[in-house]
Amino acid sequence: MALKKAKNKSRDYSRIKIGLVLALCFVFWGGLWARAVQVQILRGEELAEQASRQYFSQEKILGKRGEIFDREGRVLAQSVRSKSIYANPFMMDNIPASSARLAGILDADPGSIQARLDRKSSFVWLDRKVSDRVAHQVSSADIPGVFIMDEHSRVYPQKHLLGQVLGFVGMDNTGLEGLERSLDDRLSGAEMVMIMQRDASGQRFNLLPRQPDGQVDGQDIHLTIDSRMQFYVEQALADAVEDNDARSGIAMVVHVPTGDILAWANYPFFNPNNFRSSTPDIWRNRGATDLIEPGSTLKPFLVAAALEENVARGDSLYYCEQGLWRLGRNQIKDVREYGWLTVNRILRYSSNICAAKIGLDMGPGTLHQYLVNLGLDQPTGVQVPGQTSGLLRPPHTWRDMDLATISFGQGMATSFLQLARAFTILGNHGVFTDLNILQDQSSPVSSGQRIISREVSRDVLAMMRDSVERDGTGTRARISGIEVGGKTGTAQKASPSGGYSDKYVASFAGFLPAMDPEYMIMVLVDEPTRPFYGGLVAAPAFQRIGGRILASEQGLGLRRLVLESSGEAQGASTSDGSRFSIVPRQDVEMDTSHVPDLRGIPLRLAVENLLKAGIEPTLQGRGVMVRDQDPGPGSSWSNQQKQITLKLCSES
Amino acid sequence: MTSNKNAAKNQGPDLWLLFSVLILSGLGLMMILSTSAVMAERFYADKYFFFKRQALFGLAGLLVMYLGYRINRGFMYRLRYLWITAALALLAMTVFSPLGYAAGGAARWVNLGFFNIQPLELAKVALVIYLACFFAFKQDKVKTFSVGFLPPTLITGIFCALLLLQPDFGGAVYMAGLLFLLSLVGGTRLIYLFSSSVLAAITAAVLVLQSPYRFRRWFSFLDPFQDPQDSGYQLVQSLYAFGSGGIWGMGLGEGRQKLFFLPEAHNDFIMAVVGEELGFIGVSLVFIVLGILLWRILVICMSQSDLVDRFAGLGMGMIIIMGALLNLAVVLGVIPPKGLPMPFISYGGSSLLVSFFCAGFLLNLSRSR
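The joint structure predicted for all components is written out below.
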């Protein structure tokens, strides 16, 4: 009983104590509520004002800019990720110890690092653009509050290769010129907005240290450019410009069946890695932006139009006035004096007088229509910035002299790029073909609008072939082993004071092979001194480029493998098309540790294998077969620089 | 007394308590969506990431509450040593096993793959049941030192030691607080309580002084504006949030502090966002609901005829109330900041489930007044 009583007593105590505890809770609860009144109502405005003084700022972080590749996947422009190290001292435990460790890794003075970390800031740079090794060491040290951030810088590993076409980016990684500018939307990474906070003194700190994720990165771009071919083209162009003391030059290789631009060189070169040391004059992609008067390279289109419209036939005769023709108060001159010439030979010898006569026979409206249809007044689809449209006046304003000069490519202007497109159309047997530099837009031309009929195209291609392979103006363009066609151009430059100056633009546009072209190669040399004829200045560059293409692997990737198979001397043959035979591709793995035996095999194979081994042979004589070689087979290479001379003969 | 008991048999659950809990958890869900959307979108590319998870936990919580409501209390009491052992084992796992999952420098979670549980929350329940049974069943010996004082103190001490190893200072204080309250109510001699409190205070002081980080964290709350960008940072941001809210608040979803100014906005500092977005009105709603909870806990505990029920009810109630009051005290800058979630409102599955279980247990008690 007593026990029970005691229990009851303690039970009562416990009730009282529970009441006490809960009463205490009520007191605490009431106190907190009062505190809420103080904070929210009494001091509310003051705190709100202080809060608004610390304001947001949004920091943009750009994702990685997409890379630019050539058609083989070689990198032309890349974004190099570099690591930068920063700290949020607010999140660090032991600043002196961390400083010492960081100083060891970053090879810096612990004192200066600690001074930085002692700042009342949540964002402190420790080191920028460090090596991967250092970044790895920092991340494996795993120091709380220390972070690594990715930054990007743009690098063009091939230096000046394709410089003007690629363009460059500015400090903030936005494209300022070239493809970098026109494709900026695709290349540039998405912006990631980071919310940063600034206090009243403007100090900012990042509350969310994190790395940008993959989805903000820009798109990679694959160009149709073949960077090895580009290299050869740039070499050939540089030599052409330097050898002729010219001001500048442009060269381009187009894959005819697709309109893909395989190489596009501008000289002087421009290195986008270092655009600041260059001038806008150099980094401008003149092939797209500048107007040129095409000169005689326009004549194939004139002839094509004339044949198409039945104004003339290939064997129609025109009188070339012995080199000087008065038209009204003006006179037109030819380089040489010719009498009667067939249309075929007018193109071959490039007579201005007879071209003018054909143009006059055709009339302004028709010629204008053809030039328009060939796209000579329209920018191409190539995605380079700043393309000019041509300068082609409406035909009703053309006087006879205008019509006459336009017939041989003066008095109108177009861009190099547009002219290249017109030749590509001709090479595709008259089917409209737009040029293209992006691989994802590349497609074989099949159902484009037909500008010139197949027959007329073949006729004009044959005339262009004869201009090179026979006795025309383009004989310097001949490439041993293959029949090529082309047209020279020597345009007089308009002088700033009106009329024409004594400065010239020498050009050459040609096809490889001549009749069913795989490649269209166009070379333009601006203001060559002394010899200024396209046939002497630009045609040899064409020859070098074409020869390289033929010798290189790309040349063997031709849609149709073409090689001279007949024993006739090259260039002398006159038969149409029959000179080509199809030789299946042979992959001969050759051991090049010693001098291989190349005797008796086709030149193409020999050269291909030597180039694969990094050896550039010297050729002696003419022909398509290797007759002999020096050093002889089996001997060891004489020195580091492997050299071999191949003596050639015709196949027998 | 007996008639009272018979009448109690027929009583349903305490509806005041039930609705209070539902209001708090509903408000919590809403605030989690508001506070975490921006962050969730950034980190998980899904605005509703935290919301969805919390909603799932909420549903599970309702089940757990029902379980607590239906459970046989005698069964819970009989197995008290099992609960204690399990809780200790889980806590030990956070510290000593690879399953322990660390975040923010403290290993407070056990990784179960889809869900990380926080053993501290389970330990609270285990400790409350153990202490309630201890003081109720050993009522006659409770005044003695060796039987009445030492065992509960030792067991709580082990819990605290494990928590300090994590390290979770706040959790240890919480457990010591539960021991203190239940010892007080259970009848431990005041002299023991007083002397052990002094001892605990000394230990705490040593721990605080040992680590300058902890020291800074502890005393910055006294004047957070002294160093608003550093140690006082969270508190200043929290007070800014409350202040910006004023009386009426900036409107749901309009708060700016949660945009990464306020770390853990959907977590420990969610009440600051309530203050910013719903204003003093919203905060007062929470206070009123808490007041109702306190009142119902008082009524339920007082009406229990068995000591063990009374103590267990108080303990379960204290898990919720102490958590809520300490959390509010932290966000309002009254006590040093400690990682304590707001029951029913803060994001976090373990805390939510345990809070629901406590509520369920109280509802269970409320049937048998």
